[in-house]
């Protein structure tokens, strides 16, 4: 059985929403205020705050409050469990495809003999 990563569910849940992915893309350029993050979405501030809460709970972003201004910043290393899991899946499927190719080549060779 594959290794179980409890944080993967939180990470994939956070990444599943296009608004949250857009917020992460914007934060990849640098930290931003919540109001700046909400403008391009067309969503009301409380809705954007819920998205930010999901991202923060998953560890993808960190927020800081200075007076009345809340600023968000991406936490790039938080994606490492996702990258590791995807790399493991890719390796598993590449191995399966290699075995399938070897089987098909062997079957074709046996047919021509």
From TrEMBL:
Protein name: ArsR/SmtB family transcription factor
Entry-linked CDD domains: HTH_ARSR
Source organism (scientific name): Ancylobacter oerskovii
Domain (HTH arsR-type) ranges: 1-94
InterPro entries, A to Z: ArsR-like_HTH (IPR011991), HTH_ArsR_DNA-bd_dom (IPR001845), WH-like_DNA-bd_sf (IPR036388), WH_DNA-bd_sf (IPR036390)
PANTHER family: SLL0088 PROTEIN (PTHR38600:SF2), TRANSCRIPTIONAL REGULATORY PROTEIN (PTHR38600)
SMART domains referenced in this protein's UniProt entry, alphabetically: HTH_ARSR
């Amino acid at each position: 059985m594959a290794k179980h990563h409890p944080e993967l569910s939180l990470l994939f849940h956070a990444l599943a929403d296009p608004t949250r992915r857009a917020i992460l893309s914007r934060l990849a350029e640098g930290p931003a205020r919540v109001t700046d993050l909400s403008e391009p979405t067309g969503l009301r501030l409380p809705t954007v705050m819920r998205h930010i809460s999901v991202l923060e709970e998953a560890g993808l972003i960190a927020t800081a409050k200075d007076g009345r201004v809340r600023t968000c910043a991406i936490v790039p290393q938080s994606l490492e469990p996702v990258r590791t899991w995807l790399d493991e899946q890719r390796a598993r499927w590449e191995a399966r495809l290699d075995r399938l190719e070897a089987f098909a080549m062997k079957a074709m060779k046996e047919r021509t003999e």
